[in-house]
Amino acid sequence: MKKIYITTFVLSTFFFAGCADDYLDVDQTESISTKDTELYNNDAGAAQFVTAIYNKFLNWDMTSFGWIGLSSITSDDADKGSSPGDTGTDKDVLDALTYNASNPSAESTFNANYDGINRCNQALNIIPKLDKADPNLRARLIGEAKFLRAFMYFTLVKCYGGVPIVDHLPVPGSDSDRIMQLTRKTSAEVYAFIESDLNDAITALPEKTAYSVNERSRASKGAAYALLAKVSLYQKNWQKVIDNCNKVVGYSIVSDYASMYRPAGKFDSESIFEIYAQGAVPAKGIEGYSNTQGARGTGGWGWGFNTPSQSLVNAYEAGDVRKNATIIFRGSTLYDGRVVPNTVENERYNYKAYSSAYTDAWETDVDIKYLRYAEVLLMKAEALNELGQTSEAIPLLNQIRNRAGLANTTAASQADVRTAIWKERRVEMAFEHDRFFDLVRTGQAKAAFAVDGKVFTEGKNELFPIPAAFLKQTGNLSSQNPGY
């Protein structure tokens, strides 16, 4: 009997060892017959395959401790934090930029994104076959799956450079599919694949306003255009950045910056794509996201990792409201009246990870806003300035500054405006998982890390190591990044 593999051996069994994700309650290597697809051959069944992709972002290995380590603790915005003797497995070496090819955080982030890509490929394989589901819904779901696959590949290419492109469900026993899973492509090939997925998604996805309230966390056309603009930003395709930013419509920056990181700010007018966290069981939050970053010690509520650096504190201008909306200071009183006692171990903590209702819970109601309209304005400003249209870039920069309670920029030349935009990205988007990658793509990394007392080795630290356990399986099909 013909079978459809709804969970298969993506990047070999190494990537699923110990992974017990309850994907449609089917074991990792289980298959279902074509008869059994009738169980899912309806609107609700089709939607389950894409809901499973979104659910991956709530997992510890995808969006929590390891990812915090790679995207934030490594940067000059944050220090390891916690107690001196608590390394957080590897957060000390991430902080010092001394990690190697066996780094657990680099490995878990690599594996988790391929687990998510596998879910995307499962959805893309089976949804077209569900002919009793509404055709318009199926088209939209395919668009969502392609957006999410593009999002994951963007994470991978930023972290590791060229990686294997797994564009379909591999057939067990197929040598060509085995080679596909184990062969690194170039960064340019990965970016081209991301762009193809996003262009397909744009065709299929509706605008944000077309979704009902209970579907507001789903990807929209605006999210696809915004991500495509960001992908172009990383490749310095400046005109494409502008063109795609111009197509992100129906959004606006909110007046109160701090409100975005509180429950009332979920899916506000500025939010383009965010990971939705609902709280404790049976609702779901991002596993350990708030807890690992909460204040540590007597009177605290968490592990205390990923603490704001002095370098970040110094980056804020006087009167910038974003400083106190981003950083919890020891001895301060939070928006809900909670007093942070002087007995906690670290001077500062990440306010954007704080939950009032689920303060010390493992799963909380803190969302991650991965794409905001403020970033769209800053991306467009950066691209305009790089194309010599500095006078058009400055008003966009000033929109962001004015919302923060700051006066218009005094920068006027192209070089000064470039520096001002880069600085504005830092203080606007601190702890939103962009700073390390911004430093790398703009060439600021070596100097910025030196200010923070870290040594950034050019030609090496631009990328994280490909996991040694993966390379062990590849033979001569893939090689390690330079310096590892």
Outline the structure in words.
This protein is about 45% helix and about 5% strand. It is globular and about 65 Å long. Helix 15 (about 390-405) packs parallel to helix 16. The strands form 4 sheets. A two-stranded antiparallel ribbon has the order 1-2. It has a two-stranded antiparallel ribbon with strand order 3-5. It has helices at about 45-55, 60-65, 65-75, 90-95, 105-125, 135-160, 175-180, 185-205, 220-235, 240-245, 290-295, 310-315, 320-325, 375-385, 390-405, 415-430, 435-440, 445-450, 470-475, and strands at about 5, 30-35, 80, 270-275, 305-310, 325-330, 350, 370. The model is unreliable at about 1-30 (pLDDT under 50). The protein has about 475 residues and is mostly helical. The longest helix has 26 residues, at about 135-160.
The helicity comes to 40-55%
Order of helix and strand elements from N to C terminus: EEHHHEHHHHHHHEHEHHEEEHHHHHH
What's the number of extended β-strand segments? 8
Helix count?
Answer: 19
What is the makeup of the main sheet? Answer: 2 strands, antiparallel
Compact overview of the structure:
It is built from 19 helices and 8 strands. With about 475 residues, it is mainly α.
What descriptive keywords fit this protein?
single chain; 484 residues; mainly alpha; two-stranded antiparallel sheet
Task: Give the helices and strands, then pairings.
Layout: E1 3-4, E2 32-33, H1 43-56, H2 60-63, H3 65-73, E3 78-81, H4 91-96, H5 104-126, H6 135-160, H7 175-182, H8 187-204, H9 221-234, H10 238-246, E4 271-275, H11 289-293, E5 305-308, H12 310-315, H13 322-326, E6 327-329, E7 348-350, E8 368-372, H14 373-386, H15 390-403, H16 414-428, H17 435-442, H18 445-451, H19 468-474
Antiparallel strand pairs: 1-2, 3-5, 4-8, 6-7
Helix pairs in contact: 1-5, 1-6, 3-5, 5-6, 6-8, 8-9, 9-10, 9-14, 10-14, 14-15, 14-16, 15-16
